[in-house]
Design a protein that fits this description.
Number of helices of chain B: 7
Distance between the termini of chain B: 66 Å
Helix content of chain A: 10-25%
Order of helices and strands of chain B: EEEHEEEEEHHEEEHEEEEEEEEEHHEH
Distance between the termini of chain A: 56 Å
Strand content of chain B: 25-35%
Structural class of chain B: alpha+beta
Oligomer: heterodimer
Helix content of chain B: 25-40%
Structural class of chain A: alpha/beta
Order of helices and strands of chain A: EEEEEEEHH
Number of helices of chain A: 2
Radius of gyration of chain A: 17 Å
Largest interface: A-B, 41 and 47 residues
Strand content of chain A: 25-35%
Chain lengths: 154, 325
């Protein structure tokens, strides 16, 4: 049994792992699309074309936040897609859950400890691109089509 | 498998009340409406605070893998895997829930009362102006009070002992507090009271039940209000004081006043951290906690068994009541 001591400077609990730092950041440019990826594990950075000229200023079209979830184990399971007007969420077992907010242009993913780099790059990254593409194709801005074409062509 | 949430796929709708907020429930399943109708009151008037709950029942989930409860969240999205074979996404900014439930979960009152409803309010409540606070709530003669304390301090056990002494039981573990005008209102749900196996020596009535594994993995008796062990249950109360329960290694029960800063620190530090996107929710929660900190508050330090501690609280409140008169 633990007594509460208000003088202890203890942070409130982060039960959902919302506040895991994501110090690894990279910028990508695919066609006209500029994208920021931030993660706590550099192996989760997607193998997509970097944007060497992007100094952080100007327009950023989409952001991915990918968390390597060290406390979660297991392999990928068949995907379950939930789609609403504003969100697309994919559950692949407890090992991986990804959600994209179409209006806010943000993609969030938790990727379990046992998902290796190969599974991530060969299966998950195309899935994330597909989800990103669905955000962009619903946008009247033509850059979406360019992203779609380039990702499709590898 | 892809499930799409829209008006065509969710043709059945009904509004319910959860802790003073309105839940606009949409679903594809009559089972959901029936179960929600058993577990929740139907909304009768319009409420400013409301959220959407969109639930698809899919029988094919029965063939998928079973997982223990699992929660993750980033920014305004929260994901929850709940057994049996169910998955929910909470969009906190838009106050929407999207869920897919297995057929057994759709019909199971215990799933709704122990998991779906308390978790939904726990995740979404702060965004609806209802702060989930880690404390029990009881009432006597129309005066509610909260019993807070660290995990393992014995809040549930004391709540059960107080309820057996004639106090009205609102909640034992989580209480959902909102501000109506300038008055704080404490809401309880129909969640079962959770008592650890060793409490059977204080409550022999528990022998008729079997302990089972709870969400956090511990073995406990979970006794629903319908099977209450001799106490009166209400869903709502007006809290006016707070006890902070601490276990002492020696016999005796001591009740000493505590500072408002202690109250603020306790509830702020035991509450879940919220992301920057939810600034308004943070503000509302802080305002509720500040209002609570103005209440008379005491540290209840006890080395006695729950019934003797309940007796001490009973006498203390009676004396405080006489002093007010």
């Amino acid at each position: 049994m633990q007594e509460f001591n208000p003088s202890n400077n203890v942070e409130a609990p982060d039960l959902l792992r919302r506040f895991i730092p994501t110090p690894v950041k990279a910028k990508y440019r695919v066609g006209g699309l500029r994208m920021m990826v931030q993660t706590n594990d550099f192996t989760l950075l997607p193998a997509l074309p970097f944007d060497p000229d992007h100094d952080g200023a100007g327009e950023q079209n989409l952001a991915w936040t990918l968390i390597r979830d060290a406390d979660t184990h297991g392999l990928l399971e068949p995907p379950l897609f939930l789609k609403s007007g504003t969100l697309t969420v994919v559950l692949l077992g407890t090992a991986c859950v990804v959600g994209v907010d179409h209006e806010r242009r943000e993609l969030f993913g938790f990727i379990g400890a046992d998902i290796d780099v190969r599974a991530h790059q060969e299966f998950l990254v195309p899935l994330l691109c597909q989800m990103t593409n669905e955000v962009l194709v619903s946008d009247p801005n033509p850059r979406g089509a360019i992203w779609s074409k380039e990702v499709a062509n590898g | 498998m892809t499930l799409t949430f829209n008006r065509q796929t969710l043709p059945l709708r009904k509004d319910f009340l959860i802790a003073g907020t309105c839940c606009h429930l949409s679903t594809n399943s009559h089972d959901i409406l029936r179960t929600a109708g058993r577990c929740l009151p139907i909304r009768k008037q319009s409420d400013a605070r409301s959220f959407e709950m969109n639930i698809i029942v899919d029988a094919t989930l029965g063939s998928t893998s079973e997982h223990p409860a699992h929660f993750r969240g980033l920014r305004h999205l929260v994901f929850a895997i709940l057994p049996p074979r169910s998955f929910l996404t909470y969009d906190l900014l838009r106050r929407r829930v999207y869920g897919v439930l297995s057929s057994p979960a759709a019909c199971d009152d215990s799933f709704w009362n122990s998991l779906l409803i308390p978790i939904t309010l726990g995740v979404l409540g702060t965004n609806l102006g209802v702060a989930p606070l880690h404390c029990a709530c009881l009432e006597r003669n129309g005066r509610g009070f909260l019993v807070a304390g660290a995990s393992g301090a014995g809040k549930s056990t004391l709540a059960a002992a107080l309820a057996q002494r004639g106090f009205t039981f609102i909640s034992d573990d989580w209480t959902y507090v909102s501000k109506e005008q300038s008055t704080l209102v404490a809401h309880g749900l129909s969640s079962p009271i959770k008592l650890l196996p060793d409490t059977v020596r204080f409550f022999p009535e528990l022998y008729q039940f079997s302990p089972r594994r709870t969400l956090n993995g511990e073995l406990a008796y979970e006794i629903g209000p319908a099977h209450s062990i001799g106490f009166t249950v209400k869903r709502i109360a007006t809290p006016q004081s707070i006890f902070f329960l601490e276990r002492a290694p020696t016999l005796g029960c001591h009740i000493v006043p505590c500072r408002s800063q202690y109250v603020r620190d306790f509830f702020e530090k035991s509450a879940e951290r919220l992301p920057d996107e939810l600034t308004e929710a943070k503000t509302v929660r802080t305002s509720i906690i500040r209002s609570l900190s103005a209440f008379p508050s005491w540290i209840l330090r006890t080395g006695e068994n729950p019934h003797r501690t309940a007796e001490a609280v009973d006498h203390f409140l009676a004396e405080a009541s006489h002093a007010r008169v």
